[in-house]
Amino acid sequence: MQLPEIPDDCVDELMNVLCRDPYHAQGLPIAGDTMLTRPIEGEQQTEGWVMGARRPCALDGCGGVRIYVRWPGGQITQPCSQGITQIAQGVWQIE
Ligand SMILES: [Zn+2]
């Protein structure tokens, strides 16, 4: 998957928020990371692009962060940080 180069002071055009911020130090995905769909036996996982925009998860008592991910075709979803796993440097997977 070809990713655009992201400068340190990048502002996400869609969400108008900083792409790089203290979340990086908290072990959460940052802009440009890869998000893989939930593994399903016999199916190839889809690679999404972590956009850098985030918001607190609204689920009661979750305490997680919603991570904005853009998928091939342009769809954007917001998986919760409590439902993802890091499987490699810069690569995450929805559980
Ligand atoms: Zn959550």
Which key features would you list for this structure?
95 residues, mainly beta, SH3 type barrels, six-stranded mixed β-sheet, binds zinc ion
Termini gap: 21 Å
Please identify the top-level CATH class: Mainly Beta
Number of helices: 0
Total number of distinct structural domains? 1
Order of helix and strand elements from N to C terminus: EEEEEE
Class per helix and strand makeup: mainly beta
Q: From the 3D coordinates, which CATH architecture would you assign?
A: Roll
- Assign an overall shape: globular
In angstroms, what is the radius of gyration?
A: 13 Å
Write down the CATH topology: SH3 type barrels
Strand portion: 25-35%
Q: Low-confidence parts, pLDDT < 50 over ≥5 residues?
A: 13-18
Largest sheet: 6 strands, mixed
- Strand line-up of the largest beta sheet: 4-3-2-1-6-5
